[in-house]
Write a structure and sequence with these properties.
single chain; FAD/NAD(P)-binding domain; Arc Repressor Mutant, subunit A; 619 residues; alpha+beta; six-stranded antiparallel sheet; 22 strands; Elongation Factor Tu (Ef-tu), domain 3; 18% strand
């Protein structure tokens, strides 16, 4: 039996981040995957980022994770979404080369000291005295460890559906994990069932792009990672097309053959990423639906058709494709499919991602009910960090809702049972103005640095940027110019440039046309400075809201606090509190079924608990 400090099960985005973090923090770490050649595989769309997800990638990088750096190195098409809206919802997205992403991820892992990659299928989790002790592999091997991070993706009893056909698989052409879920249930964990899907893959040389809208990348895109010292390069165009009336007719005529509508699928699918049959069924008033034609890589002609996820039979998928403008003669290389899999609702984990039933066992990624590479990677990174900090008797990291999108996601997961696969959106963050992409490092880099995950080079770049921003901020408020130089509607007064920059029509680029130092200032920092100055008033208001939020978050609920004997609480409230075991009053207030009066009662009992604790210590 081999012995490691941390064992990571799964080589997807969550497993990569967990294993890399644990090993870089000095823990001997084993990453176990059923097929080591598939470590780092992008199983669905080869894209990273998007609305709410771009923020997660920046936060992962600020904590010292790998995803942003891998994306910069292997991206082929870069865009910032929502640029016409406010900076709180600007979200970066990159189309990557699927093969290069996997290869570079494996290259990075191979260079990490203390990390060992092990090929094998885990079928069981062992524990002693309710503490993780070892894993059991299908071939009979046992590997012991002090902590375990389970990042199983869609492999737990995974079942692929294409029309009436069903194939056990974790991904296409990859065997599922058929015993690990049962092992967890024996330990007392309660499972659920979810589903997700993927669209057909197309032969790009059979597409008529002249019938589609071209979608070039952004030339001024800022790299995802502070490790990236050069700019990124757009090397392909994506395209946009739409479904047609004939598409809708074909789907309606065959909807009974869809695995989802036939009743073959028991798992719940993602509402915000529906299949094409679900879109057409639910939105009958829409004449067409937008589809994105996205290349899979530089040395392949394979195309991903974003927006056409489906579980219809292959012959129907062919007919659908041929009804879409530009795809009349397209060759389908692989049909789309739906996959359902086991997950374990996250009321069974703590905000640290450690499970409540088994000490030193951490869940991350789709096992917690999430969907998406970025959501998985963020959880994996935090789970890897916390697995090592606990072994080293250091405080575990809990990120709150006002600190990061990562905190929003984890808080959402541990305070409610998902009715569908959880996906991050900017709308989920009530403090999103304070959680912008551009200030992710201000919020989180010190945490990553404290664990040795942020490199010296990254820290030096951050400190340099911060010093330049602070210096220029002061200069703009001390240096006055004629207002009419940048604002045609202004009178002849001289005003500080910082004051002028607050005006809606004035940008930092305007200042750069009349001020030499602004012209020499890095453009990427100029945009950040503009955001800081224009939104200063709104930020002050949001920071006051965050202060009020943190007052409730600071009211901790001790582990030894007996929620089952509190007088004045409804039975329903007690049941909810016992199931979710919130760590503070703020988290308790966000549980479904908990009212303001319940929080008031809980606050009174907590005061008594702390008073009696102080009395006992005094005596």
């Amino acid at each position: 039996m081999r012995d490691f400090q941390v064992i990571v099960i799964g080589g997807g985005h969550a497993g990569i981040e967990a294993a890399a973090a644990a090993a870089r923090m000095g823990a001997t770490t084993a990453l176990i995957s059923g097929d080591l050649a598939k470590v780092g595989e992008m199983s669905c769309n080869p894209a990273i980022g998007g609305v709410g997800k771009g923020q997660l990638v920046r936060e992962i990088d600020a904590l010292g994770g790998l995803m942003g750096y891998i994306t910069d190195r292997t991206g082929i098409h870069f865009r910032t979404l929502n640029k016409s809206k406010g900076p709180a919802v600007w979200s970066s997205r990159a189309q990557c080369d699927r093969k290069l992403y996997r290869e570079f991820a494996q290259e990075l892992l191979a260079g990490i000291e203390y990390l060992t990659l092990v090929e094998g299928m885990v079928v069981g989790i062992g524990c002693e005295d309710n503490k993780f002790s070892h894993v059991i592999l299908q071939d009979g091997r046992e590997i012991s460890g002090k902590a375990c991070v389970l990042a199983s993706g869609t492999f737990l009893n995974g079942l692929i559906h294409i029309g009436e056909e069903q194939t056990p698989a974790g991904r296409v052409n990859e065997a599922p994990s058929l015993h690990l879920s049962e092992s967890l249930q024996v330990l007392g964990f309660k499972p659920g069932r979810l589903k997700t899907g993927t669209p057909p893959r197309l032969e790009g040389e059979t597409i008529d792009y002249s019938k589609m809208e071209s979608q070039p990348g952004d030339d001024d895109f800022l790299p995802f990672s502070l490790r990236t010292t050069t700019g990124v390069t757009n090397r392909v165009h994506c395209h946009i097309t739409y479904t047609s009336a004939e598409t809708h007719r074909i789907v309606e005529a065959n909807i009974h053959r869809s695995a989802m509508f036939s009743g073959n699928i028991q798992g719940i699918g993602p509402r915000y990423c529906p299949s094409i049959e679900d879109k057409i069924h639910r939105f009958r008033d829409k004449d067409r639906h937008q589809l994105f034609i996205e290349p899979e890589g530089l040395d392949t002609t394979e195309i991903y058709i974003n927006g056409l996820s489906t579980s219809l039979p292959a012959d129907v998928q062919n007919d659908i494709l041929h009804s879409i403008p530009g795809l009349e003669n397209v060759v389908m290389k692989r049909p789309g499919y739906a996959i359902e899999y086991d997950f374990f609702p996250a009321f069974q984990i703590k905000p640290t991602l450690e499970t409540r039933l088994v000490a030193n066992l951490y869940f991350c990624g789709q096992i917690n009910g999430t969907s998406g590479y970025e959501e998985a990677a963020a959880q994996g990174l935090l789970a890897g960090i916390n697995a090592v900090t606990k072994l080293n008797n250091r405080p575990q990291v809990v990120i709150d809702r006002a600190q990061a999108y990562i905190g929003v996601m984890i808080d959402d997961l541990v305070t409610r049972v998902p009715m569908e696969p959880y996906r991050m959106f900017t709308s989920r963050a009530e403090y999103r103005l304070a959680l912008r992409e551009d200030n992710a490092y201000d919020r989180l880099i010190e945490i990553g640095r404290s664990f040795g995950l942020v490199t010296d080079q990254m820290m030096e770049r951050y400190v340099s940027d911060r010093e330049q921003l602070d210096s220029e901020h002061k200069r703009l408020h001390k240096t006055s110019i004629m207002a009419s130089l940048v604002d045609p509607d202004a009178n002849g007064d001289k005003l500080p440039m910082g004051v002028l920059l607050k005006r809606p029509g004035v940008t930092y680029r305007h200042l750069a046309t009349v001020d030499e130092e602004c012209a020499l200032f890095p453009e990427r920092l100029g945009e950040r400075l503009e955001i800081l100055i224009k939104y200063a008033g709104y930020m002050e208001k949001q920071l006051r809201e965050i202060d009020r939020f943190r007052q409730l978050e600071s009211r901790k609920i001790p582990d030894d606090f007996d929620l089952g004997v509190l007088s004045g609480l409804k039975k329903e409230a007690i049941a909810v509190l016992q199931q979710y075991r919130p760590i503070n009053l703020g988290q308790a207030s966000r549980l479904n079924g908990i009212t303001f009066s319940d929080i008031t009662v809980l606050m009174i009992h907590l005061k008594r608990h702390y008073s009696s604790s102080v009395s006992r210590e005094t005596n």
